[in-house]
Amino acid sequence: MTPKERAELYRRMLTIRRAEERLQKLFADGLVPGFLHLSIGQEAVPVGVSSALTEADTVSSNHRGHGHTLAKGVDLTGFFAEILGKATGLCRGRGGSMHVADLSKGMLGANGIVAAGLPITTGSALAHRMQGKGNIAVVYFGDGALAEGLVHECLNIAKLWSLPILFVCENNGWSEFSPTERQLATSLDRLGKAYGITYREVDGNVVEEVARAAGKLVAGMRKAPAPAILECRTTRVRGHFEGDRQDYRDSDEIAALDARDPIRLCAEALMAAGLDDAALAAIAAEVEAKIEAATEAALAAPLPEAGDILADVYTRAEV
Amino acid sequence: MTPKERAELYRRMLTIRRAEERLQKLFADGLVPGFLHLSIGQEAVPVGVSSALTEADTVSSNHRGHGHTLAKGVDLTGFFAEILGKATGLCRGRGGSMHVADLSKGMLGANGIVAAGLPITTGSALAHRMQGKGNIAVVYFGDGALAEGLVHECLNIAKLWSLPILFVCENNGWSEFSPTERQLATSLDRLGKAYGITYREVDGNVVEEVARAAGKLVAGMRKAPAPAILECRTTRVRGHFEGDRQDYRDSDEIAALDARDPIRLCAEALMAAGLDDAALAAIAAEVEAKIEAATEAALAAPLPEAGDILADVYTRAEV
Amino acid sequence: MAETRYIKAVNQALKDAMRDDPTVFLIGEDIGAAGGSFKATRDLLDLYGPERVYDAPIAEAAITGIAVGAALTGMKPVAEIMFMDFITLSMDMLVNQAAKARSMFGGQGSVPMVLRTPHGGGLNAGPQHSQCLEAWLAHVPGLKVVVPSNPADAYSLLRAAIDDPDPVIVVENKALYAMKGEMPDTPERIEIGKARIARPGRDATVVAYGAAVGMAEAAAEVMAAEGVEVEVIDLRSVQPWDEACVLESLSRTHNLVVVHEAVEAFGVGAEIAARMADIGFDELDGPIVRVGAPFAPSPFGKTLEEAYRPNADRIVAALRRTLA
Amino acid sequence: MAETRYIKAVNQALKDAMRDDPTVFLIGEDIGAAGGSFKATRDLLDLYGPERVYDAPIAEAAITGIAVGAALTGMKPVAEIMFMDFITLSMDMLVNQAAKARSMFGGQGSVPMVLRTPHGGGLNAGPQHSQCLEAWLAHVPGLKVVVPSNPADAYSLLRAAIDDPDPVIVVENKALYAMKGEMPDTPERIEIGKARIARPGRDATVVAYGAAVGMAEAAAEVMAAEGVEVEVIDLRSVQPWDEACVLESLSRTHNLVVVHEAVEAFGVGAEIAARMADIGFDELDGPIVRVGAPFAPSPFGKTLEEAYRPNADRIVAALRRTLA
Ligand SMILES: Cc1ncc(C[n+]2csc(CCOP(=O)(O)OP(=O)(O)O)c2C)c(N)n1
Ligand SMILES: Cc1ncc(C[n+]2csc(CCOP(=O)(O)OP(=O)(O)O)c2C)c(N)n1
Ligand SMILES: [Mg+2]
Ligand SMILES: [Mg+2]
Question: What keywords sit in the KW lines (chains C, D) (predicted)?
């Protein structure tokens, strides 16, 4: 990876981080309707994975989907506007944080239903295989989702039918307010073995590692369609959703998170490779300016009209 | 196992066989309403497993449930009457072949929904654990059912919570009209490993093997509640249901079934152990007489009254 | 014009749709080599190969979700769920995914999938293989639900469903699979949401769909013998349903009976009756009477199942009551 | 008499039921250590231990099925499904298993389980976390469905549900969880299936349940200022529902409006309206008007969600229309 490529990954991670920090503030100010699940500490996963993807590849996501969405290249202003419920949002303000989608970028949607992204993505991968253009599909899901039966139905079918799907598990150790280890008697590596699906585990907080592993797996899948699993050990820094004070978490655990911060780790690697403070600061300034502009535009955008509720329930105007 | 015990297993298998052969004829004569899935060739599984069970243990079953039901000790006449849809049936003629149950014998029901027995039995096992009497729960399911997500949800929870449940898979290689190998990228031994659940495989057509393996597993579960898997390789002799001509099956495969017939294998073992033809014939005569009596009684029994439809939808008369 | 059976019409519609549109593909349990439990997909694997006809493992939720994802990625999947009772396993994918994607994504795309599934009794298949659950789906904004009552409609409605850009559930009736009927040489293109006057009349309106249409026609015969001319409306689709057609008929006949095979309480008929008790109130000369299954699981035995399913006699009794 | 909140009343009912009956146990996601997403089960793990309070993995189908199996084996499970939208994953266990076991096994036993789940909007939780799906369950013979509208009822109906020998779904309303209300020192024992006259009146009847009861009461206030006395009926349970009570009220007021937060089309209100358009036809002086959510997924933004949910104004407009 060239220093430039590495810096680009840094820039993307920082964009997600700053965007979510901005959302965090907007939420605290009462400007974000509904639930807000932040992926702070997990940015390396989607940025690393997306570095292996083209726009024609499809991804689908879960409730903690901001990073997945931004990494797939959606418009920042439309993203903010959506989460603020504005008419100019990517989904015209009807979806919000848990349902951001941009089909034009191959982003098939965040999802409020745990594990629902898996069959949708399996179907998308089937379409890719039938269309024969070498595109692939990626699904992001959490460790907690592994308890849902749908995961297994999809692992089975993806393997049976050699579908080009990358199962990306963001294993942050938590399922809402419970440690996932209390919810799972299995693990993804063992499931991978059970279904004969290629399995790789990476430090999900080291973006280069994620990118390298994803790159390899995806390249293979493009040539010969087949599923693969990428398990990323990562860290959920904030509560399950904003407003969750995480009383159930050990202070030691929380204190240790900083050392594994993916952005800090990437910055350190960049510095070790020769980038200086000024270069990092320049990236930060550029990112912050973009976020600020997007936020301002989104804040200034109009709310949807009430009459809009009935729009788009069906494609054709009702009979 | 004493010769007497062995002969008893034989008698039970033969009871199931003759009962199903009788049903087969009744079906051909148009006397059995609805679907009829016969378990001919699979009798050793429930007979072997049930030899380890008490009446207080619970079992639940699937669409191919006659053997499971009879082996749990339900009344033969009530069984026939149920399948014929008579008012005197175990379920007053409202369930039929796919829904025979006898709660008084711990038989929680056949089931028309593939894999539905698993969570019900998992719940029953949880109740047993809470009640602390050392009772256990058994679920019978087919190899095709392994593709349903519920199987995995239940393996996970049973292991997590150390539930005294025996998962009995009747692996007959078929899922309706398709070889199961085209539907499954995994296997139960691999799933057992993935979930850390004790797994045993037996020749499901050798009743002593089944009985021995089940006996061991169940004894362990009674002492220290924990799940276990017993996979029984077995043979579906008839079509998926009566009326299915099995055109999709190789004639070689069908021809080979006879050599693995569990009743023949048991008879041979009994003869090798000293039982003579006359003794076997005596068992057969006794079994046939019972089946005939049960059939006659069931045939003579009245149909339910139409007014009975609304009975028992709720326990208390409607408000 | 040729005579065909309902199940063959379904098969023909699938065949023609696959011929006309290479993005149409099939997925379901035992639909390939075996041609489907009811033979709706017979020969299609041979004709179009395993890249267009997927024999799926027993995993209804995944099958339905795969259809959603493939539809979002440019394909037109037609999924089969072997018995409507098993859509209990597909509900999340239908309701939270397929139905909502277009609206909650702000109209960006759509989910052009079809889910075919048979409902209804008559096979003594019992409580878990006979249910008519279309009322659930009709309650879900974003889904469409069609219920063909005869072979020609089975063809045309399935074609319309496949052509539709939104998710459509095609509910077939098991007891009708063997039904024979005329199939026009150039099958009608049906617009989903338009009803059909199955039999014109001036004294009372019976609204029905699926297998109940035939029962309503039989009841109309009985009434005709007494000089009462009953109009029978075949809704064809229950979501959307042709409110204008029903209202127009009611405004001529002033008496309404609604019939379906599903459980009466909280069934599709409730919506039709409720709507007419509002916008059609001034037209009503008598109570709106519904005919459906009693409030109990579908029993399996022959006599019980017969007593459970609606029939012409019960429709006649309902007509007599509203006309009294 | 003490004031309490709806969610605390739920918590108290669970606590008391667990104290009174050792076979009562709880199962659900994050209900133990975390006390539930809405804190309905707060402190219960500490009080009764992990043998009575099961923090389950994310597996709604299994959770529901486990409740069925435990209920068939002598226990009284109370399962929580975190949002009613997720019962899409539990439908098979509810509909094909819990609901049918007693009837299809010929009355041998019963399934004394409870499934608690919150429905409704007001939290801007969007299309997959706001749905009111009780009409599906009301359509299923064998299930009971209660929908408490206030803290005292939240207590009493949950106790009644736990005492009931058959499967009962307790639908709570998220927007009501913070509602304060009086809790009698000796809470009322409510019989499931009996409605409550929330406000007597002589000019029109509004039938409501859950959060819609408060909206109906507010509408009645508005109408009272104009001299129109509106009777508000709180159904308390929608399956079974108190047909006799509604008919009796209608026979005094002669005008009927039915309100709920669920989507209007094919909702619970359709059944009530349809039934009254039959057995109550002679009592009706005007159209039966329903008020519910429009036919669209629940939008998430504040203004859209407000416009989507029914409210007193829309009930007033409905009353004016039927009284016109
Ligand atoms: C079907 C379903 N069940 C439960 C929930 C509630 N819920 C939302 S997120 C979550 C935990 C998910 O944990 P994990 O998959 O590890 O993702 P993470 O939040 O850690 O990123 C739960 C239980 C849901 N949204 N959908
Ligand atoms: C949920 C569900 N899906 C599909 C079916 C239809 N079906 C009934 S039996 C069966 C095959 C089951 O195969 P297996 O579990 O191996 O049992 P076997 O018939 O071989 O004993 C299928 C697909 C069903 N009854 N329930
Ligand atoms: Mg997690
Ligand atoms: Mg099998």
Answer: Oxidoreductase, Pyruvate, Thiamine pyrophosphate
